[in-house]
């Protein structure tokens, strides 16, 4: 997403994880770096009253301490353009932070980064085992990409990092394949069910489920409670809002006939976003399920919505075509601004983790 102050595209983790004050009713659009500069937290000896730069709410001493602590804990920020590139003086200096050149970095699609000691990783299977230990992602669900090439396991002689010219300081992309993987499966009919409770104030509000279709890296069409059906493209449908006013509950459903989609449709991104409430966390007991209609008891995607509680939107997963009638479900979990009234921030977030360039 883009910082409204410095106008630079930043990772979601480079923004405050909570609202700037407890009284703010907006998603922070200042990155942490710009927020720290605006609040002048390097100079805390004065008695100046500090306010949210976006809505002018006054910050308490506790809120200032929390922001300062969040900044102190900021780790090395990834230069996304250099993922899959070996170390150079130029791209090291371009990164914001101190890069330990004895390490390699594994980067998830949501921007999360994990560090591994280069000299302790003897080969690709060992790297996968270390990823499983640190991230609890089974080896069979890991797709590792470096410099546009997928890292492969060899049964007889395992490939080493050096075989792929991976050097200390390199960044490797990790794509988590929840369904399909090396044995991509045929999925004909997909159902996405979303349900939620009204916010604590009891006001009617919607937690929106959207599906954005892409042709390669080009946006094609969206389905949401506003755009529920296109007669010229009858393979998908959105139910619109189904509201249960007496019980203060709501639900939505998206159906997709994957086997009928034109071959140029390569990705379907599933997104949750808050309509009027500032964050997803304002809704009571939200939940969802993504299933193959023929196997309703087998969830294709799991995501803890608590992880997106402080965000306006989250790109949960992508259903990606890997062959004729064959699809993979890939975990993303990228936080974002935006909602059904404003898809620009969501489309920019999707572009930051675009799967087309990584998988083709």
UniProtKB/TrEMBL annotation:
<dbReference type="InterPro" id="IPR051324">
    <property type="entry name" value="Stress/Tellurium_Resist"/>
</dbReference>
<keyword id="KW-0862">Zinc</keyword>
<dbReference type="Pfam" id="PF02342">
    <property type="entry name" value="TerD"/>
</dbReference>
<dbReference type="Pfam" id="PF00240">
    <property type="entry name" value="ubiquitin"/>
</dbReference>
<dbReference type="InterPro" id="IPR029071">
    <property type="entry name" value="Ubiquitin-like_domsf"/>
</dbReference>
<dbReference type="InterPro" id="IPR001841">
    <property type="entry name" value="Znf_RING"/>
</dbReference>
<keyword id="KW-0479">Metal-binding</keyword>
<feature type="domain" description="RING-type">
    <location>
        <begin position="3"/>
        <end position="56"/>
    </location>
</feature>
<dbReference type="GO" id="GO:0008270">
    <property type="term" value="F:zinc ion binding"/>
</dbReference>
<dbReference type="InterPro" id="IPR003325">
    <property type="entry name" value="TerD"/>
</dbReference>
<keyword id="KW-0863">Zinc-finger</keyword>
<feature type="domain" description="Ubiquitin-like">
    <location>
        <begin position="102"/>
        <end position="181"/>
    </location>
</feature>
<protein>
    <submittedName>
        <fullName>Uncharacterized protein</fullName>
    </submittedName>
</protein>
<dbReference type="InterPro" id="IPR000626">
    <property type="entry name" value="Ubiquitin-like_dom"/>
</dbReference>
